[in-house]
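Quick one:
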Amino acid sequence: QSYFLHALGQEQLAATLFPVGELPKPEVRRIAREAGLPSHAKKDSTGICFIGERDIREFLGRYIPARPGVIQTPDGAEIGEHQGAWYYTLGQRGGLGIGGRRDSSGEPWYVVGKDVPRNILYAVQGGASDWLLSRRLMASAPNWVAGSAPAATFRSLAKVRYRQPDQACTVFVEGQVCRVEFDEPQRAVTPGQSVVFYDGEVCLGGGVIECSDAPFGGWAQQSGANPERTTENVHA
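Output:
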């Protein structure tokens, strides 16, 4: 759970207890069973905690009107229609409604980019596509659990999504922005999600992902780099 708690500081942590923080979930369930608590057999939740098991698009549709737009390949070919770019996330496979194309290889389609202002969704076939890969990201509003960053530049382990295995990286702290360079390409780094840094099991803090150097990751706009969209950068 430290991935979700990385934004806490010393003031909050000083008044916080984690009574089962050192115990694996099976052990917690065993203790609950021996104590006669009915929750010991409760299934793990798979939905977003504040909306339950409801479909995320159905939930968002109650507050955000549908706005149909086109689905394109990176070279501009129109291959379908969506109901609003905000309903989709990078790397998403299901719910695109693309199929039966004669020029298709038959592989599943994946979201590789979103242009929300223009309401365009970009998709390619194949989940291992280089269009989803990036080596660098920039994050804003970093929070350091100890009160300050370990150093202006430091080696770290990082996660860009919940339950992701630790990824080795170098972190460059530049005021209220962090630049992160990974040792290995990362799949579907998503703006708006959190990147969280670790020293072993110790959570150092994290920030909000603003962009990545994936072809549709927005790196050029944020960093002033060459804006040409290419997959070559992930293999550099």
